[in-house]
Sequence to fold (109 residues):
Amino acid sequence: MHHLPFHRQIAMFKHAGVSIPASTVNGWFNASSDLLRALYYRLREIVLASDYIQVDESTAPVIDNKKKQAVKAYVWLRLCITVMYMKCCHRAVASVKQFTKNFAYSVWN
Fold:
């Protein structure tokens, strides 16, 4: 997974002679996230409808706007026939329990 923060992308465009305000880039991101929300919920239904789910975690740096710095976030991988990622800002098992609460054969039951 490759990630380049918006401020660096904006600087690269500016260096190439294209000026894009940060508010525009943020607006594009928010709008596209809103459009993808329905896909997330459908993917979640598909994953939870499977007979078998594996769960694993990875970490990724995420900017915490309150702290104004990068913090460690946890990305939980759910695997059945379909692969799905979910970002959490903590390592607590509660996030996995919340995701799998309606799954019939959860190890948390």
Observations:
- The helical segments are 6-15, 22-48, 94-99.
- Strands lie at 54-64, 69-79, 83-88.
